[in-house]
Amino acid sequence: MYKKILEHLNEAVLLFDRQLKLTYINTAGEILFADSARHLLGNSAMELFKTIDSEQRLDLEQCLRMDEPLVDRELTLDIMNQSITVNFSATPVINDDQVTEVIVELQQLDRHLRISKEEQLIAQQTTVRMLVRGLAHEIKNPLGGLRGAAQLLDLELDDPELKEYTQIIIAESDRLQGLMDKMLGPNKLPNKALLNIHEVVERVRQLVLIEANGKLSVIQDYDPSIPDVFADKNQLIQAVLNIVRNAVQAMEGSGILTLKTRVCRQMTIGRKRNKLTARIDIIDNGPGIDKEMMSKVFYPMITGRASGTGLGLSIAQSLINQHDGMIECDSQPGRTVFSIYLPLENHHE
After folding, report:
1. SS3 for 216?
2. Mean of the per-residue pLDDT values of the chain
3. Among 100, 147, 188, 241, which residue has the least CB neighbours within 10 Å?
4. DSSP annotation of 297
5. 3-class SS at 145?
6. Contact of 264 with 223, CB cutoff 8 Å
7. What is the DSSP-derived secondary structure letter of residue 96?
8. The model's pTM
C-alpha cells in the first residue's frame, strides 16, 4: 500500500541500503532522472548525485551510522548531465534498533519556479494581446476613412505635384493597414493534421539558407524518434521562420545557427501536464539579448533593431499558443536559445 502512495507523489523518493545503493525509486524519481527504475536500481548515491562531494557523502554515511537526518535546501545537483535545484532531505530508517536504510526526498524547485514563470508570462501575453487588438481595431476604422478621403481628393486634383501628396497618404495608409493586420495576429483557426516536425524545421532551414547567400552555417541536431505532432503546418513554418529570421538578423546575416529537436517527458505547460512534448531549439551565436529586453521580448512593437517592427516574435508566440504550446528564451553573449514546446497528445481537438 505504501508503494502505491509513493507512486502518486510529486516529489522524488529514493531508498538506499547501508551501502548507499539504490533499492527503490518512485515514478516522480524516474521522471526527475529521465530513466527507468530498472536502469537506476543498484546505482550508488555518488553515481546518481554527481555534484555531491565527499563531505556530503560522509553526511549520508553519518545518517546511517549516527541515525541523524540530513536536510539541505536549494541544493544544486547535476543529475544525468542536467543541473537542477532541489530541496534535499535524507531520513534514516530503523529496523531492530539499527539503521538499515536511508530515504532521500528530492523536491525540484526550478520546476515550480518555471511553472510560475510560465503562468505569469501567459497572463501578461494574453493581456497585452487583448489591448493591442483593441487598439488596432480602433486605429483601422479612421485609417480606412482617411485612405478613402485621400482617394476622392486624388480624383478631384489635376496638379501632378498635389496628386503626389495624396499618393503618399494612400501608400502610408496601406502600410499602416498592413501593420495593424500584423498586430492583430493570426485570424484563422489552425488547420491541424498529423505531421513530422522535421518537415517544418527543414523547410525553414532551406528558406533561410537561400536568404543568407552562403554566409550562414546551419547545424542540424535532430531526434528522428519524435512522434508526429498534431498541428497546422503553415502556421508552424511561420512561427519557426519568424524566430530563425530574428536570430539571423541578430547575427547580422552571418554566424552559426543550430536547429535542434528533442522529446521532453512529463512537461507542464501552463497548468497542463503533458506526457510527451516536442521541443525545437533555435540556437545562435550572436551577441545575445539585453537583460532589459528579456522580459519584453515577446511583446509586440518591442525590438532592439532600428529597422524592426517588433512583431515577429509576438506573432510566433501567438501561433504556438494556438497549438497549446509555449516559447521560452534564454540568452547570454554568444548563445541565445529560443525553445518551442508543442504537446504531442492533443490529437482529438
Report:
1. strand
2. 79
3. 188
4. T
5. helix
6. no
7. T
8. 0.58
DSSP state of 290: -
**Taking 90 as the threshold, does the pLDDT of residue 46 lie above it?**
no
Contact 247, 257 (CB under 8 A): yes
More confident: 205 or 127: 205
Q: Does the pLDDT of residue 258 top 90, yes or no?
A: yes
Give the distance, in angstroms, between the CA of residue 57 and the centroid of all CA atoms in the same chain.
35
Q: Is 138 helix (H, G, I), strand (E, B) or coil?
A: helix
The CA angle 236-256-264, to the nearest 5 degrees, is: 45
> Is-contact 303 310, C-beta < 8 A?
yes
Q: Which of 298, 179, 190 is nearest to 236 (CA)?
A: 190
Contacts 24+ apart (CB under 8 A), 287-291: 287/250, 287/333, 287/334, 288/331, 288/332, 288/333, 288/334, 288/335, 288/336, 289/250, 289/329, 289/331, 289/336
Scored b (16 or more CB within 10 A) or e, 75-111 reads bebebeeeebbbebbbebeeeeeebebbbbbbbbbeb
Indicate if the pLDDT at residue 276 is higher than 60. Answer: yes
Contact criterion met (CB below 8 Å) for 61 and 20: yes
Q: How large is the greatest C-alpha to C-alpha distance in the chain, in angstroms?
A: 107
Instruction: Return the amino acid letter for 163.
Output: K
Query: Grid coordinates standing for 59?
Result: 553526511
Sole residue written with cell 547545424: 219
